[in-house]
């Protein structure tokens, strides 16, 4: 359960002023939940090998907003840390591609799974069923032996829902409900205008109905920016078993690396409030780039910064976060700030 709210130090202000500001901001959040988020969008499209298209957005969501000073530096934080009850990180994101963009072999995938298990992760997040990853021989058995599970993605692309239907069929053919921890239908699909809320709801219903036939009764959800989920909560909440968002503190201009965990924990608490505190909140993509062409104000890419940020997130919200990513993904474009290829962080959990 989330800890009680706590407030970060507010320079040059008295205690009374800090409390007053906190109350005013809380009232603003409650009365302005549908405003447009400030976002940095990176197009991750790469059509080689029919790769899934990913879009990263800033975590500076309106609903989980910060009060900013004139230079963009955060001077107020709304919530306190999520209390951890386990030293194990929950999940890490994984794409079954080599640095050149080819599909990995079954042997390479299983070796990666073993490495992830050795680092203590409890789950692997897949964005889609690309490269027929679920057909990897002995995958389910390897997961069971290591007491791990899968967070399976059903990706929705700009091309429509047909590929999503194919991925549902892949999961049905997998027929291993016991190793599936969560199913995520869509990855910022509404935000990217790949589908409308009612279309996503239809896909959620179809997925739930299909997976129930193979005995899966675990959580099925989607992931969207917090403001998008809140904007459409009346439609979406009845169809989401848990609430999920990709919370990337690097895209918060006021976030220094060492503060990344606090930012993630705050956003998780706001996320959990959207459906009236009736659903668990999960962070399905989070981390920090080890390299880039430029800084994003206080958010600076680098190996030292990545180490500080990932350790901070691990401490504050590691049991509810999927760390991004298993390895650098050189098959992607560089993206905004030149960081898109450099999120690999396995060395922090399991030095190679």
From TrEMBL:
Record-linked SUPFAM superfamilies: (Trans)glycosidases (SSF51445)
Ion transport among keywords: no
Record GO biological process: cell wall organization
Keyword Heme belongs to the record: no
Leader sequence segment: 1-35
GO molecular function, one term: glucan endo-1,3-beta-D-glucosidase activity
Name the UniProt record assigns to this protein: Uncharacterized protein
Species in which this protein is naturally found: Carpinus fangiana
């Amino acid at each position: 359960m989330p800890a009680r709210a706590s407030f970060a130090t507010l320079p040059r202000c008295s205690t009374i002023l800090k409390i007053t500001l906190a109350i005013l901001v809380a009232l603003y959040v409650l009365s302005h939940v549908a405003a447009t988020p400030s976002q940095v969008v990176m197009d991750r499209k790469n059509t080689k090998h029919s790769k899934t298209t990913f879009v990263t957005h800033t975590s500076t969501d309106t609903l989980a907003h910060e009060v900013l000073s004139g230079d963009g530096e955060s001077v107020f934080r709304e919530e306190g840390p999520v209390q951890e009850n386990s030293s194990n990180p929950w999940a890490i994101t994984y794409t079954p591609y080599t640095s050149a963009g080819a599909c990995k072999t079954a042997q390479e995938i299983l070796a990666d799974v073993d490495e992830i298990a050795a680092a203590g992760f409890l789950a692997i997040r897949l964005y889609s069923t690309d490269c027929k990853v679920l057909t990897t021989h002995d995958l389910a058995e390897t997961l069971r032996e290591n007491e791990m599970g899968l967070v399976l993605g059903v990706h929705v692309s700009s091309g429509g829902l047909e590929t999503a239907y194919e991925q549902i069929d892949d999961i049905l053919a997998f027929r291993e409900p016991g190793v599936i921890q969560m199913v995520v239908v869509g990855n910022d699909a509404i935000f990217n205008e790949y589908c409308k809320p009612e279309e996503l709801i239809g896909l959620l219903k179809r997925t739930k109905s299909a997976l129930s036939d193979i005995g899966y009764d675990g959580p099925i959800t989607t992931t969207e920016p917090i403001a998008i989920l809140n904007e459409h909560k009346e439609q979406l909440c009845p169809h989401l078993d848990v609430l999920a968002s990709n919370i990337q503190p690097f895209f918060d201009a006021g976030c220094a690396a060492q503060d990344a965990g606090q930012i993630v924990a705050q956003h998780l608490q706001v996320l959990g409030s959207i459906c009236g505190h009736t659903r668990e909140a999960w962070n399905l993509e989070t981390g920090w780039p080890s390299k880039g062409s430029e800084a994003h104000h206080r958010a600076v890419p680098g190996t030292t910064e990545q180490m500080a940020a990932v350790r901070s997130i691990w401490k504050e919200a590691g049991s509810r976060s999927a760390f991004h990513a298993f390895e650098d993904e050189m098959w992607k474009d560089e993206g905004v700030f030149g960081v898109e290829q450099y999120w690999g962080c396995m060395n922090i959990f399991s030095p190679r």
